[in-house]
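ARCHIVE CARD
CATEGORY: sequence design from structure
SOURCE FIELD: tokenized fold
FIELD CONTENT:
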């Protein structure tokens, strides 16, 4: 593409130039990644995990002293929806399995959530708030697992 330094390009011409540049990078082995899309997927996964935890906590019904987690989970969902300007989560139907399987699923989701929250904290301007959320969850987990 030829262009003149003194001439102001149109939006269409900039799009053509950007496309040619991206194609040239890809031909040379570079990969273009949309960082905003990755962050959006991470947030979606995090809120989905919150919903899964909420349904598992309902199914557990306080088994092994998990009831304090329900109110903590609700407060943190509300806080994160405000932070990231999101809508609330949809409640899923609790899985009616035995309580031990539900508890193990809860722990798995909890660790996945903490991992996601750490990744969000690294990329977010709310790092200290999110780390506080993580610490609250870890503190409550340690109380439950100490029984």
């Amino acid at each position: 593409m030829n262009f003149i330094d003194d001439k102001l390009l149109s939006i269409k011409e900039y799009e053509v130039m950007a496309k040619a540049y991206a194609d040239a990078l890809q031909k040379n082995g570079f990969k273009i990644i949309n960082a905003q899309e990755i962050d959006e997927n991470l947030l979606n996964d995090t809120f989905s995990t919150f919903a899964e935890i909420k349904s598992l906590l309902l199914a557990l019904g306080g088994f092994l002293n998990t009831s304090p987690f329900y109110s903590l989970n609700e407060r943190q969902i509300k806080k994160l929806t405000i932070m990231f300007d999101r809508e609330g989560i949809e409640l899923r139907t609790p899985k009616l399995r035995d309580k031990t399987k539900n508890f193990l699923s809860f722990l798995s989701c909890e660790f996945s959530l903490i991992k996601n929250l750490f990744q969000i904290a690294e990329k977010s301007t709310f790092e200290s708030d999110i780390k506080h959320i993580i610490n609250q969850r870890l503190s409550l987990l340690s109380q439950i697992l100490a029984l």
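CARD ANNOTATION: Residues 35-145 form one domain. Helices lie at 11-27, 35-60, 67-83, 99-123, 127-145.
SHELF: design records, drawer C
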